[in-house]
Amino acid sequence: MLGASSSNLVWYKLGQWAEERARLNQRATDLVFGRRTVQVDQSYIDSLHAAAQQAGEAADHNYAAGVSWRKTSQRLDAELDEAKMLLADREAVIRQCDHTIAQLRDSLSQERKAHTKDRGNLYSLLGTLQILREAEKAGKAEWPEFQELKRLADKEAESMSRGERFPGYSGEQYQRYRYLVKALSA
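-> structure tokens emitted (186 positions)
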């Protein structure tokens, strides 16, 4: 038994020396290549695993948040495009309304001019009738000027009663009208 144990001991020692030589060779190789051997506690490795787990969870959360933001951004882009189309439609309606308002203002302006002219013709007729009434009170009803002015007033009233605009007097007609008014007013 002793023999077997001494040979085992020799083999054991040879194994230790071989292991020691391999360790020294490894250290020499590490020094040449700039590598160092580090001893680490299991608690440090566990904390590194925990940090890696937390970093993975944070990365998953950030990825999910990025996907959510991207979807939100795409939805907002679609809403913005829709809002731009609605705005363009509203602007077209506003332009149409502005055009309609301009047409109505033009029409109103023309109606006001026509009304002003009609009102002017009415005032002119009333003025002529007033002169005829005063001349009649003064006893000038038999005068030829009175009769001529009465015919002009009847023509004007007839034209206005048919809804036509009385064109008024121009040039010589106006001079004649002024003469008749002066003659009967004096």
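The chain has a mean pLDDT of 84.
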